[in-house]
Design goal:
This protein is an alpha+beta fold and 239 residues long. Helices cover 31% and strands 28% of the residues. It is built from five helices and ten strands; from the N terminus they run E-E-H-H-E-E-E-E-E-E-E-H-H-H-E. The protein starts with 6 loop residues before the first strand and ends with a strand.
Length: 239
C-alpha cells in the first residue's frame, strides 16, 4: 500500500495546496508592545508635570533650582540731574485672550487673567534749566527759578506684587508647552500691563504733584541759604 500524506490547516481541515495561506501576524503583535511603551511614557511625562504640584509628591517629580549665574558686571555710570519728586503705585487686572480661527478654544486658544502692579516715577530735570532760568537779586534775598515741566518715567512692574490668577489653554497649546523652552510665558500680559499702567499715569496728577514737590524742595533749600523769597515757575511744553 502506498501511504499518502495529507496536510491540514490550522483549523484541522485538509489543505489541498490551493487554499490561500493566512498572513503572518508577528509584525502586528510586535507593534503592540512598542505602542504600549510609548503611551505609558507619555502618561508618565504628563503625570510628572502635574504630580509635582500635589502635597507630598514634590520630592518625587519636583525640580531643584541652582543659581549658576556669574557676577554682575558694571557697564557704565551716568550722572543724574533729574529730581524724582513723585512716585505713583498702580495696579491693573489684565484679561488677555487669544483665539484661533476655525478652531474651538478647547483645541487652540489661551486666556490669562493677570494682576500687574508697578510704579511710575515723575521727575524734573534740573540739568535742562536754561542759562537765564535762575535770576538772583544783588542782595541775594530773592530768587526766581524757571524750570522745565515734570516728565513721567517708564512703568516698572513689581514681580513680587504681580501674579497670574488663572490660565486657560487649549489642547494644542498645552502640548506645545511641553516642548517649549519658555512654557507659560507671561511676556504678553506683562506688556499689556505696562501699557495700561503708563496710560493711567498720564491721566493722573502725578506730574503736577512732582512739580509742587520740586518747588517746595527748592524753596526749603534756598531758604536755608538766606533767601527770603523764592519763586518757581515751569516753562516750555509738556511732554
Amino acid at each position: 500500500m502506498t501511504s499518502t500524506d495529507v496536510r491540514t490547516d490550522s483549523a484541522g481541515e485538509p489543505d489541498d495546496g490551493n487554499r490561500p495561506h493566512s498572513r503572518p501576524r508577528s509584525r502586528t503583535r510586535g507593534c503592540l508592545p512598542f505602542a504600549g511603551v510609548c503611551a505609558a511614557g507619555l502618561v508618565l511625562l504628563l503625570l510628572g508635570s502635574r504630580l509635582s504640584l500635589l502635597p507630598g509628591l514634590g520630592g518625587l517629580f519636583g525640580e531643584e533650582t541652582r543659581d549658576r549665574s556669574g557676577p554682575a558686571v558694571l557697564k557704565s555710570i551716568q550722572d543724574m540731574s533729574a529730581y524724582e519728586a513723585a512716585s505713583g503705585n498702580f495696579q491693573v487686572v489684565v484679561d488677555l485672550e487669544k483665539d484661533a480661527k476655525f478652531l474651538p478654544d478647547a483645541i487652540r486658544g489661551t486666556r490669562t487673567l493677570y494682576v500687574g502692579a508697578g510704579t511710575v516715577q515723575a521727575s524734573v530735570d534740573l540739568g535742562k534749566v536754561a542759562e537765564d532760568g535762575v535770576v538772583v537779586d544783588e542782595d541775594r534775598t530773592t530768587a526766581e527759578l524757571r524750570l522745565p515741566h515734570a516728565v513721567l518715567g517708564k512703568p516698572a512692574l513689581d514681580p513680587d506684587r504681580s501674579y497670574a490668577v488663572s490660565k486657560q489653554r487649549g489642547l494644542l497649546d498645552r502640548l506645545g508647552d511641553l516642548f517649549s523652552d519658555n512654557p507659560g510665558s507671561e511676556q504678553a500680559v506683562n506688556k499689556v500691563a505696562v501699557e495700561h499702567i503708563g496710560k493711567a499715569a498720564e491721566e493722573s496728577d502725578l506730574t503736577d504733584r512732582a512739580e509742587k514737590n520740586t518747588a517746595a524742595m527748592l524753596r526749603g533749600l534756598l531758604g536755608s541759604l538766606g533767601f527770603e523769597k523764592v519763586t518757581v515757575t515751569y516753562v516750555g511744553p509738556r511732554s
